[in-house]
Design a protein that fits this description.
The protein is of the alpha/beta class and 298 residues long. The chain is 41% helix and 16% strand.
Length: 298
């Protein structure tokens, strides 16, 4: 890797407190990023512990592999999106971790096109070897579809005006997209731009489809007593996690008697989402929107 990226793992202490890694346990990290959470877990699971690390971004994966090279335990690194979990041959594990936020590689590298603060090709793909770029999608789809993206994934009240400006401009770079948004809504663009980029990033990477797949299949990979932690960064993700975890932790009841007929296979470990402390938010602004939810297989 040509550039060293500073990386602070969000909610690191909270993740460890909930996962409670023990000697010899196994971790499936479906978003390894730069490996911060996994490194701490492996330090506790020891030489008989194991890690399966997934990431759609080969740059992330290679850097995580480098950073974890001297940490004890068996390690396997796979470049894939976790939407592909159902097709993978993975044995049951003790812990599953999904940190749905962008890594420092994406945010701090201007060449990746994830930020409007620097000018770069409008890409937004985690996996730069597959799929359409944001620019290609904007060119292909209709103005109405762009409006739907902005309304659904960014919850933007000015979605229609912004969509019209984007479709007219057909931006190829991040700054061209920024200029299109400014043309549409003027000074309000500063507050809308994060949601515009978020909306397009979700579409480009099929993020909510991937999360739905993870929430359906991931819990099935847990051993008895296994724990699963998901860290989300916007309300759409958090609602999906909340509802999925609630569904699989609710026992079935007899419609006549109201008695439990089938116990729930999981318990929710977080009645409310765990959020970052004031101190962590001061030290790492990316932690401000993080929400952690967790379940355990009983």
């Amino acid at each position: 890797m040509s550039q060293e990226f500073e990386h602070k793992s969000v909610l690191l202490n909270e993740v460890i407190d909930i996962l409670k890694p023990a000697k010899g346990e196994s971790l499936l990290d479906v978003t390894i990023g730069l490996g911060g959470h996994a490194k701490e877990v492996l330090s506790m699971t020891g030489s008989k512990g194991s890690l399966i690390a997934l990431d759609a971004d080969i740059q992330n994966l290679e850097e995580a592999q480098r950073r974890l090279s001297k940490v004890k335990g068996a390690k396997e690194f796979v470049c894939t999106n976790f939407i592909n979990l159902p097709e993978m041959d993975i044995e049951p594990v003790d812990m599953i971790l999904a940190d749905l936020g962008m890594s420092s590689v994406h945010i701090d590298n201007p060449d990746r096109g994830f930020s409007y603060r620097t000018d770069a090709p409008l890409d937004l793909r985690y996996d730069r070897n597959n799929g359409e770029t944001a620019h290609e999608i904007i060119e292909r789809v209709s103005e109405e579809e762009i409006n739907n993206y902005l309304w659904r994934y960014g919850e933007l009240k000015q979605a229609r005006r912004i969509a019209a400006a984007i479709k007219e401009a057909l931006p190829k770079t991040t700054w061209q997209l920024r200029d299109a948004v400014e043309t549409a809504i003027g000074y309000k663009a500063n507050s809308a731009l994060p949601q515009v980029f978020q909306s397009l990033r979700i579409v480009v990477n099929s993020e909510l489809d991937a999360l739905e797949s993870l929430l359906q299949f991931g819990p099935k990979l847990l051993k008895e007593g296994g724990r699963m932690v998901v860290i989300s960064f916007h309300s759409l993700e958090d609602r999906m996690v909340k509802h999925a975890f609630r569904a699989i932790s609710t026992p079935k009841r007899d419609q006549t008697t109201g008695q439990i007929s089938v116990p729930a296979p999981f318990d929710v470990l977080t009645k409310k989402p765990v959020t970052a402390s004031d101190l962590e938010c001061e030290e790492n602004s990316r932690a401000r929107s993080a929400k952690l939810r967790a379940i355990i297989r009983v």
